[in-house]
Amino acid sequence: MIHCPSCGAANREGSKFCNECGYTLNIGENTRCPMCSADNPVGTVFCRECGARLVPISAPLPEQPEEAPPAPIKGLSLPSKPPSQKEAAAEGEESEEGKEKALRWLRRLGRMQGNETMAEAPTAWPPQEEVPDWLQALRVKYPEEVPLEDRPPPPPKPAADTGPEAPEEADWLQKLRVGTLEETEEEPPPVSAPPPEQPEEEELDWLERLRTGTAGEAEAEEAIPFESPAAAVPDWLSELQIGLTEESPAVAEEAEPEKEAVPDWLSQISPAEEAPPLEAIEAEEAGETEVPDWLKDLQPAAEEGEEVAPIRAEEPPPIEAGEAEVPDWLKELQTAAGEEGEGEEVAPIRAEEPPPLAEPEETAIPEWLDGVQPPIAEEAPTAPEAETPDWLQGLGPVSEAAEVAPEPQPEEVPDWLKDLRPATAEPAPTVEEPEAVSAIKPAAEDEGVPEWLKALGETEPGADEEPPAVQLLPEEEPAREAEMPAWLREFHTPEKEPPITLETIEAEVTEEAIEAAVPEEAPAPLLTEEPLPIEPETEVPDWLKDLRPAAEEEEAAAPVLPEEALPSVETRAEKAAVLLGEEELALAEIPDWLQAMRPAERAAEAALPAQATVPEVIETSGPLAGIRGVLPIEPLIGEPRSTQPVAPPPSKIGPQQASVFEAVIAGLPPAPLEKRKRRRKGLLSRLLRLSIHAFLLLAVLIPILLGTQWFTAASVSGGSEGSRAFFDTVQSLPPDSTVLMAYDYDPATAAEMDLQAEAIVHHLMSRNLKIIAVSLLPAGPAVAQDIMDRAAAIQGYAYGKQYLNLGYLPGHEAGVRDLAQNPVGATKEDYLNREPLTAIPLTQNISRVEDLALIVEMAGSQDSLKWWIEQAGSQHEVPIVAGISAAVEPYARPYYGSGQLAGLISGLIGAAEYEALTDRPASAIDSLDPQATAHLALLVLIVAGNVVYLLTRSKERS
Amino acid sequence: MAGIALNETLGMWIAAVLTIMVYSYLLGDNPLYRVAEHLFVGSSVAYAVVVAVHSVLAPRLLVPLVSGSTQERLLLLVPLVLGLLLLAKVRGSWSWLGNLSMAFLFGTGAGLALGGALFGSLVPQIEASMLPLLGNKLVDHLIIIVGTIATLGYFYFNVGSQRGLGRLQAAWVRLWARLGRWMILITFGAIFANTAMARISLLIGRVQFLLRFLLDVALGR
């Protein structure tokens, strides 16, 4: 079974495409685990290495009872989830619920982007170059008759409002940011991007501003939920909000910064207190932005020469749109709005109280719209209405009581929207009722009215209720909901939804901030952050799909923010483009208005703790449901990056390890005194060792240099028993007999053994004995040849006739055994001339070892001695005498004691003894005094060492 | 003669320098000692190889294989093959090929060692320890007998029962074991002393060589 990585549907083995969505199943490729990068067979649901889920949960998520009301402010963003009308018609509302929930996380993430309002609804139309192309195509063209110069001047900006990045940032975002800052500081900063000199202000996240900025006065508490969600309310919907500032001065003051976060065209309908900052921003965008085309289609032709009126909450522009240009369906709306009556207060839309939809009776310009239009010239010039869809301007419920308001620019407000405006003839003490909402209802019944406008008609103004909570688009009739597009229905506020309060927003923020993701209407570049393909078409209303292709052609013209402003966005967008293989995801194609949504860098620091508390979340909804370690997209993109490194979380093991390490380090370096003592001790021991060497060297050198004979007489007098036995054995040999002399030592012990060998060879030659030399060591033949040649030169021996060198006898004890069995055959040729032994006269009479008169073993080690004794002496009737090194004597003495050795000469003393016995003093006797003095020196050293040891031990004990 | 004299002189210089380099180890490990050590090892191995080729392989294997009779050649194929298989031990995956040669070597060596040790060392030494406690060598024989028994008792680890006669037996064994330990210690001391004596002899030989060399150099010989 192969699970589709796109939709999670189960497909049969071998399927190349998903049965459900047609996704290529990549047969033959491995699925790489996103967590451990392990390769898993295609179709594996869970990683076989780490257990991470590889395939999203395909089944729709279970109902979330606690999530009853969708976010009260669901921003009617244009690119919001657009289930196809076909599905909507076929499956109805219930069938779309699953899909809506599946995509709800995207919207939630959009709301969590730091600007709920903008994330969900790009209502704040960015400047013209920043609007996505497909949205630009939807814009309502600005009346061509009205040149840009004729439009009302933008409101004056504050002194230090505009930063270098101000024009690149979405106005509504700037307003939101600045507005919140003002709220916290109670001091209106510049409207545009916060200056870099005030990092504290930038650090404030919009969420925190929403939470904390409005907390305080009891009066303001009611305004807070209004203002906070105001940022999340889609712009065109926010126009429906009643100027709450009129309700109370305190509320107005606190609402002011929040109002500025509303998009420009929306801010025009904000209360009068917001006018200066709003206008300041609008001034930057004057003449730059245009109304989306799709809005243009909806917008009736504006009258020539009509000025763009800044739509403000308290001061709506004078809408003078001609009645003839209003579509039929809007005319009905106008009629409905006109019937509502003048002077009716614009009340916040509340779900509990459906607005009296039938009230508007006014067919022309509603009075509430007239009243809303403020005298703009009193305070500041208003921003041109080029940025605001005309029809939306009319939606803004404005308060007539606003005294400080931008200049009305009626040319921007279509007539049909004027009708939608609630007539606010008199200043409302509490909240103005959005008449437009109520006026929509009769028009919504018309078939020509778009569904999303029908949804507007379903909203209910809460006239009498207190304004803090704003309920947008309360659900009125299920039948009408069915007619609404799904994406619009999503933002439809049912009656049961609680009013938007600070608590609800905070709760929503804390829950959903974890699931940082793409805003609902985020365009493709943002959606590409998700590794799984997300079909953007499904999120766009069908009626928008038709308009999109034409708009995409203008994408290249969209300006791009400076790279340094969006480093992370670029990289992530490129990475996402690589993952999805979509070229259209290039960085330059990221909509500017979306890039502008990125808050200031410092603003992320406030949001970071909330994310840091969320370690790793398994997606519970959406197309990535079940996948672990999904990167949160929205906060990473939308939230600014902080260049300051974030300290790692404190580790529990760290302090322990640090303490242990400290203890070890503390114990490692010895104290200076100990160092000195140790150094002194090392120096003393070295000096002591050198002194011993020098002492022994002097003990050896002095007798040699002086030529003393202190111990010679005592050493050689009579000789030892072994030496005498050796001498006697040689003396007992008949002349011309052959003696086998084995030189089993090498130059390493030559200084000791050569003296013995020279004495023995001289004795043998003096006895006219024939000598056949052999060696079990490779270096032995050379030593033997040298000694015999020197002795032969003295004794007049001839090589080959009287002495012979057989050379190296390999095989150790096997060689000895071989030689003992066949003395001539063991070595084929001699060592010196390489002549065959059969041709040498000396060996002619030697056929077996018994033909030898004596075996003289010159052993530098006990092994060779043992081999000769065991393999030759004990097996054959041939006497063996040995001249051995002094180190071998403890091993050789038992053989002499047992009679296996006929004679034994040991060491330098044995050589001296033998020289004395042969009456031929040589080097061995001369070496006796150095040897004796060295022995005495050793004795002295041993005694001295023991004395020092005893003294030291006694001192230590004491 | 001039060439021989030059070679001898050069050899004397090399020997003298290398001797000093080796004795420089008395001051601590140093590069001079290392160089001399490596030279000694290298020259020893090289000399052994040369000797093995010239004294063993050529006269015993190669020459007979070339110029020997057919029977001799066939017989020599056995050691030749065994020797070649022994070279297979160089590579791990082929080492099993040399097992036959190694088996032959170990078998031959074990047989020779066992026979030689049994009839060349063990039996003669046992016979030699059967000494009469009479005569002028009574002390020597007594020491040999007591020393042998005590040493053997030291390696008798079973003390038996701790009751009755077993207790007495254990005390008896412990007594001999303690005596045997002293005998072993004395033997080790004798071995060490003889080794030190042998090395002193080597030192004397080297010092005499150096003095002769210096004398020759001083006299210009």
Topology:
The complex is a heterodimer of chains A (958) and B (221).
Chain A: E1 2-3, E2 10-11, E3 31-32, E4 39-40, H1 85-111, H2 116-120, H3 133-136, H4 171-185, H5 199-203, H6 206-213, H7 218-232, H8 235-238, H9 249-259, H10 264-267, H11 275-284, H12 293-298, H13 328-340, H14 367-372, H15 390-395, H16 415-420, H17 435-444, H18 451-458, H19 478-483, H20 486-490, H21 502-512, H22 524-527, H23 536-539, H24 542-545, H25 548-552, H26 567-580, H27 592-595, H28 603-612, H29 634-638, H30 653-667, H31 672-706, H32 712-716, H33 721-731, E5 738-744, H34 750-766, E6 770-775, H35 780-795, E7 803-808, H36 813-821, H37 823-826, E8 854-859, H38 862-873, E9 880-884, H39 889-897, E10 903-906, H40 907-917, H41 923-926, H42 928-957
Parallel strand pairs in A: 5-6, 5-8, 6-7, 8-9, 9-10
Antiparallel strand pairs in A: 1-2, 3-4
Helix pairs in contact in A: 4-6, 4-9, 4-11, 7-9, 13-17, 17-18, 31-42, 33-40, 34-35, 34-40, 36-38, 38-39
Chain B: H1 2-23, H2 31-67, H3 70-87, H4 99-129, H5 138-154, H6 165-219
Name its key features:
heterodimer; A: 958 residues; mainly alpha; six-stranded parallel beta sheet; 42 helices; B: mainly alpha; extended
- Number-wise, the strands of chain B total 0
Order of helices and strands of chain B: HHHHHH
Estimate percent helicity of chain B: over 70%
Distance between the termini of chain B: 14 Å
**What are the low-pLDDT stretches of chain B, counting only 5+ consecutive residues below 50?**
none
Termini separation of chain A comes to 87 Å
Q: Looking at the structure, what is the overall shape of chain A? A: elongated
Query: Kindly state the mean pLDDT of chain A as a whole number?
Result: 63
* Beta-strand residue fraction of chain B: under 5%
Total strand segments of chain A: 10
Number of helical runs of chain A? 42
Uncertain runs of chain A are 59-68, 71-77, 114-130, 140-170, 176-205, 210-234, 240-263, 266-290, 299-326, 335-366, 369-389, 394-411, ...
Percent range for β-strand residues of chain A: under 5%
| Radius of gyration based on Cα positions of chain A | 55 Å
Q: Which two chains touch over the largest interface?
A: A-B, 61 and 47 residues
